[in-house]
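Notes from hallway chat w/ T.B., transcribed later so I don't forget. T.B. wanted the structure written out for a chain they're using in a teaching module, and asked if we could keep both sequence and structure tokens in one place. Agreed to drop them here.
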Amino acid sequence: MTHVVPSREKVKKAGKVLIKEDATTDEFNDAMAVLSQWRALHSYTINTFQAMLRGKVKQLGFKSPIIAQRLKRTPSIIRKLNRFPTMSLSRMQDIGGIRIVLPTVNDVYRLHKEIITIKARFDHEPLLPPVDYIEKPKDDGYRSLHQVFKYKSTIAPELNGLFIELQIRTKLQHSWATAVETLGLVEKSSFKTGEGAEEFKRFFKLASVLFSHHESQPVIDEFANISFPDIASELITLEQDLQIYAKLTGLIITGKHIETSSIKSNEYHVMELNTSDDKREVSLIAFTKAQLELAEEFYKMREIATQDKPNIEVVLIAAGNLKDIKKAYPNYFLDTQEFIKNLKSICHKLG
């Protein structure tokens, strides 16, 4: 199968139109069509790459790994283009993303070393060095190892040069990142892009420092000279003032609030989260491997249909069965139990 690939210039132009304030409806719709076509091409690249990764993870014998892939949501792409006006849509590196969650920091670095040195069937090119947010956390507290690859294949050479972003993180780091996204959904603020109230952002910074300390890793620079008991004390006080645990606890979407299709041998899911106060639920529409194009078309259709509904989030993912999906994307089930449990335990140990 040969893929129809729009020119880089056409994709670049579409990206500019998407953030153009005076774009006409026709211009915007044409640009959205190009974006959807460009994004869909990344499904094939991350599929082949994920297959190699699953084999490597299994070979290395990691305990209970989580592996998931997703296509970046259109609102996230447009937000990123607005935040970085000089960025070209054709050069955006995280449209197709794969995430691997492992037990320890040593596991993260061990896997990374393996995959940048192996010669697999598809000889993808790692863009080195990686962006290591474990060694140097982001100012907001985010921690993970990001490695971008340039796709390279003799089977689908027309896709060569497309980017794949691989995120490798620990389960502790994963619980932090998904808690940030969950509270962002509840508070209607994208904390991970710098929005939201300062006191909430301060809370997550403090939590990140405590998690870094627990994993014996570097902390955010601004907290380097503050004792960990003092950080724990401030976090506890802040949590009591903001009632963050109370906001998060009880939000979990249970089995009766999950709608799912009946396809069993599925590869992909279009996942839709509704955070309305009167209808908090998630729906999962499953598609087989052979139905990828249908899944992408349905994803695009639901994004267009819900673009003016801030309470609804839609994403196309592949992460296995329902249990695996819940582990990979707990924020879509408003589940922060691991985050709260870990944070309370660390604060307790620090007295």
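Follow-up for T.B.: The longest strand covers residues 268-276. Might be a good example for the class.
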